[in-house]
């Protein structure tokens, strides 16, 4: 049985996950840590751009090149099964575990399990869904060898603790659509981003604002500079922002979902969201701006599907409620929405 992670080990692992938001090349290192923490043989993280049929992030650890090549043959089966299960999945926070959710009769006839996983000695797979919209699909998964046994409650609980941190890191990477932000070129790199970015200390004091953020602060956007402190115009949004910033300063491992998708706008306006990335931990982030404890990314959702996904995160909607919201945001009537879901 794998040993429990100490608080120091968990914090270090979460710090490595957040470094990946600004440097996706670090995912192999972070995935290796996730794999080892979950006592698994392999780990995979993937972010798909479904609209343009391209992979934005694809990282693996523990998979031999031969089996990685073979696995590509079974992608249609893997996606078909996951999407079928997702259509009735109760929550994106619930992991998909083969030993718990796939019937044995299916495994016995599945080419993927019989021809790819079984020869490697892999007996169980746990997948976590990070993003699921018509334009984006992201998740991470670990597979266990027969010597490690099937997934237990320990791995499900620990995976659930890591999930919001992995999701936050991937969402911010998706939002930036960049490679790496180098420390020496921080201001220049942040100014090149389309989204607004504000670096703050533990009190929310603005230490650096990129060009887009400065324009937003001057033009009366959803955020404001109140005597040097970053504030949202909506009090409830300000409260969540500052709660996330304080958690980022004290212990980023405890931030959970706080600050993952803060709705900054009133219901009658196009939605704009803020996402808080802890900055104090990890060598990459701490080296960019030593006094910064948080980076706040502000931007609009690219389309109605992504807007629905972000609103779902902000308000804790179920998958079914998210699909209804996406249809309504696309301009369909309630009757049309109801018909399309049957």
Write up what this structure looks like.
The protein has 342 residues and is of the alpha+beta class. The chain folds into two domains: 7-176, Transcription factor LuxR-like, autoinducer-binding domain (Beta-Lactamase); 183-300, Beta-Lactamase (2-Layer Sandwich). The protein is 45% helix and 21% strand. The chain contains 15 helices and twelve strands. The strands form three sheets. The chain has a five-stranded antiparallel β-sheet with strand order 2-1-5-4-3. A five-stranded antiparallel β-sheet has the order 7-6-12-11-10. A hairpin with a 5-residue loop joins strand 6 and strand 7. Helix 1 packs antiparallel against helix 2 (27-37), helix 1 (7-22) runs parallel beside helix 8 and helix 13 crosses helix 14 (319-329). The mean pLDDT is 82.
SS elements, strand count:
12
Through-space gap between termini: 45 Å
Name the helicity range: 40-55%
The structure class reads alpha+beta
Number of helices: 15
Provide mean pLDDT, rounded.
82
Rg to the nearest angstrom? 21 Å
Write the layout of secondary structure elements.
Blueprint: H1 7-22, H2 27-37, E1 42-49, E2 54-61, H3 65-71, H4 75-86, E3 96-97, H5 98-101, H6 104-109, H7 111-117, E4 122-132, E5 136-145, H8 153-176, H9 186-191, E6 196-200, E7 206-209, H10 211-218, E8 223-226, E9 229-232, H11 235-250, E10 262-263, E11 272-278, H12 283-288, E12 294-300, H13 304-315, H14 319-329, H15 334-340
Antiparallel strand pairs: 1-2, 1-5, 3-4, 4-5, 6-7, 6-12, 8-9, 10-11, 11-12
Helix pairs in contact: 1-2, 1-8, 13-14
């Amino acid at each position: 049985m794998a040993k429990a992670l100490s608080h120091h080990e968990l914090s270090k692992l979460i710090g490595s996950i957040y470094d990946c938001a600004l440097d996706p090349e670090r995912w192999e290192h972070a995935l290796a840590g996730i794999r080892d923490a979950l006592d698994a043989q392999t780990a995979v993280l993937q972010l798909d751009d479904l609209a343009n049929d391209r992979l934005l992030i694809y990282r693996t650890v523990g998979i031999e090149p031969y089996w990685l090549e073979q696995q590509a043959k079974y992608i249609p089966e893997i996606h078909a099964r996951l999407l079928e299960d997702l259509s009735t999945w109760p929550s994106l926070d619930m992991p998909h575990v083969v030993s718990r959710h796939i019937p044995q009769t299916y495994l016995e006839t599945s080419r993927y399990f019989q021809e790819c996983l079984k020869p490697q000695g892999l007996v169980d797979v746990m997948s976590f869904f990070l993003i699921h919209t018509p334009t984006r699909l992201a998740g991470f998964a670990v597979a266990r060898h027969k010597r490690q046994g099937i997934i237990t409650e320990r791995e499900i609980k620990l995976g659930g603790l890591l999930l919001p941190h992995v999701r936050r890191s991937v969402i911010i990477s998706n939002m930036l659509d960049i490679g790496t932000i180098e420390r020496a070129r921080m201001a220049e790199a942040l100014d090149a981003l389309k989204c607004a970015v504000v670096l703050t200390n533990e009190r929310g004091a603005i230490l650096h604002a990129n060009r887009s953020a400065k324009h937003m602060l001057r033009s009366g956007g959803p955020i404001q500079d109140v005597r040097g402190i970053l504030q949202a115009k909506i009090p409830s949004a300000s409260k969540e922002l500052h709660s996330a910033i304080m958690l980022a300063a004290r212990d980023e491992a405890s931030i959970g979902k706080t600050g993952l998708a803060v709705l900054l706008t009133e219901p009658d306006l196009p939605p704009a969201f803020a996402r808080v990335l802890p900055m104090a931990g990890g060598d990459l982030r701490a080296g960019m701006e030593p006094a910064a404890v948080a980076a706040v990314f502000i931007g609009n959702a690219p389309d109605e599907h992504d807007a629905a996904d972000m609103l779902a995160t902000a308000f804790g909607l179920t998958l079914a409620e998210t699909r209804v919201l996406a249809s309504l945001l696309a301009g369909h009537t309630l009757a049309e929405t109801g018909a399309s879901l049957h």
